[in-house]
Amino acid sequence: MTRKIFVVIPASGIGSRMQADKPKQYLKLKGKTILEHTVSLFLDHPKIAKVVVAVAKDDSFYTEIALLKSDKVQIVFGGETRADSVFNALNVIEDENAWALVHDAARPCLKRSDLDKLLQIKDEQGGILATPAIDTMKRANGTQILHTEDRSTLWHALTPQFFPAKRLKTALETAFNKGQIVTDEASAMELSGYQPQLIAGRSDNIKITRPEDLALAEFYLTHHLEK
């Protein structure tokens, strides 16, 4: 049986580090909002059944985006944290055998080749895109170095992150009930005893976090379109 794949995009954050007059997902790159670029990555993919976008209850921007009115897009209201927003989005997925592909709203530079690699995962522990750490990594106490970490076993977690939807929802709910900190979907799965797979992804799959990231994302988007 062909599994249904739902994309979940938590987009209810304000992106305070961008120092902008609106949430960062609504800033413009190459004539479109960051969120439009991100959602567009999935709308024409033949394996994607639906894209669920979690926005803030007081969001006054999403209604102006025509792309979000597509029949393949469903809007839900997010929560106080990223994990809350993902959980709310998972609540509208009714198919018991569905898989959830969770992707940051501010990662518009994902390449189709990386997405397709991740979608090949069949192991129900799931998996994530990630890049091996290449910089020297320091363990610190505040701003003082304690020691240097062995980077050979360290990876930078990226998105998308891909899991059976029902299993991920249960893992998040369990973490909430125990008061555990969930920084990404993989961490929720890990807290429930799973060991998700790491899929090596491209380093240009950047998350736009600070003002200087906008120029870099525009460069990558231009490069992707030209290839």
TrEMBL record:
Biological process terms from the Gene Ontology for this record are: isopentenyl diphosphate biosynthetic process, methylerythritol 4-phosphate pathway
What terms describe the molecular function in GO for this protein?
2-C-methyl-D-erythritol 4-phosphate cytidylyltransferase activity
**Superkingdom of origin:** Bacteria
Residue numbers marked as site, Transition state stabilizer? R17, K24
Catalytic activity, EC: 2.7.7.60
Q: What class of enzyme is it?
A: transferase
Which pathway does it operate in? Isoprenoid biosynthesis; isopentenyl diphosphate biosynthesis via DXP pathway; isopentenyl diphosphate from 1-deoxy-D-xylulose 5-phosphate: step 2/6
Q: Give the matching PROSITE patterns.
A: PAS
Keywords annotated in UniProt: Isoprene biosynthesis, Nucleotidyltransferase, Transferase
**Reactions catalysed, as given in the entry:** 2-C-methyl-D-erythritol 4-phosphate + CTP + H(+) = 4-CDP-2-C-methyl-D-erythritol + diphosphate
- The PAS domain extends over 178-227
Q: What does this protein do?
A: Catalyzes the formation of 4-diphosphocytidyl-2-C-methyl-D-erythritol from CTP and 2-C-methyl-D-erythritol 4-phosphate (MEP).
The family classification in the record reads: Belongs to the IspD/TarI cytidylyltransferase family. IspD subfamily.
NCBIfam families attached to this UniProt entry: ispD
Q: What is this protein called?
A: 2-C-methyl-D-erythritol 4-phosphate cytidylyltransferase
Organism of origin is Mannheimia varigena USDA-ARS-USMARC-1296
